[in-house]
Write a structure and sequence with these properties.
It comes from Carnobacterium viridans. This protein is of the alpha/beta class and 278 residues long. Helices cover 41% and strands 13% of the residues. The protein has one domain: TIM Barrel, CATH 3.20.20.100.
Length: 278
């Protein structure tokens, strides 16, 4: 059975289409064990951020997972993000090094601007371009950017972001943004793909779950993948970690994908990048 898919980003770097998110996982031992379990189970992409406050636990989980799975650091794709205050204080390069030190690695595969902080994200991006040019990071991208943020970034940059990581789920499909990203060859990545579990009781999702003998979460993650969206569901439960990866042995029909997309309500469960004080 196929257990993974890889996508090539616009700079030629390869990234798994399904990874593990660790937002709001604060218990050190729980997160270490979850990441170790995930890596042994075949996860190769781990997504964290400086503001999560868990980069040290991520690093320890990675070390234990590498040892248990018999793989190398190079087999993993590790992402972190710069927080807003480090952008304001012009500490981009320092913040990157801090993340490296906390995780305990020599480089990241992807470093993201976490939020488009007005009057700061362009300067922060230019500093990230320096990191990329010096080959200290394999890829750079953004998170929570709207079309107008990306348009402004383009005016002042030489490197196109490889990824825009945004809130994306059946009730927030971000069609205009997704079309723009496709046009610009910027990969969309979904955070909170399962709406913190809220979407799992939707009647359509449950009907498809019954049809395919898959969980509601698996239906949604499969929808992500068939829409060409990288997805990083969060879980520390061993059974759920395995379940979330078991989405490569079936496919929704085009009509079913469209019907899930049609559930869109433009409804956010997280902050609106255009109406939030970062």
């Amino acid at each position: 059975m196929k257990t993974q898919e890889i996508i090539t980003l616009n700079n030629g770097v390869e990234m798994p289409t399904l990874g593990l998110g660790v937002f709001r996982v604060e218990d050190y031992k729980e997160l270490v064990e979850a990441i170790k379990t995930a890596i042994v189970a075949g996860y190769r992409s781990i997504d964290t951020a400086s503001i999560y406050g868990n980069e040290e636990a991520v690093g320890e989980g990675i070390r234990q997972g590498i040892a248990a799975a018999g793989i190398s650091r190079e087999d993993l794709f590790i992402t972190s993000k710069i927080w807003n205050e480090d952008m304001r204080s012009e500490k981009v390069i320092e913040a990157y090094q801090t993340s490296l030190d906390k995780i305990g690695v020599d480089y990241l595969d992807l470093y993201l601007i976490h939020w488009p902080v007005a009057e700061h994200y362009v300067a922060a991006w230019q500093e990230m371009e320096k990191l990329y040019a010096a080959k200290k990071v394999r890829s750079i991208g953004v998170s929570n950017f709207q079309v107008h943020h990306l348009e402004e970034l383009t005016k002042h940059s030489t490197v196109t972001p490889v990824i825009n990581q945004v809130e994306y789920h059946p009730l927030l499909t971000q069609g205009e943004l997704k079309d723009y990203l496709t046009k610009k060859n910027i990969q969309m990545e979904a955070w909170s793909p399962l709406m913190n579990g809220e979407i799992l009781q939707n009647d359509l999702i449950l009907a498809l779950s019954q049809k395919y003998g898959k969980s509601a979460a698996q239906i949604i993650l499969r929808w992500d993948l068939q829409n060409g969206v990288i997805t990083i569901p969060k879980s520390t439960n061993a059974d759920r970690l395995l379940e979330n990866r078991a989405v490569f042995d079936f496919a929704l029909t085009e009509e079913e994908v469209a019907s899930i997309t049609a559930l869109n309500q433009n409804r956010r469960i997280g902050p609106d990048p255009d109406n939030f004080e970062f």
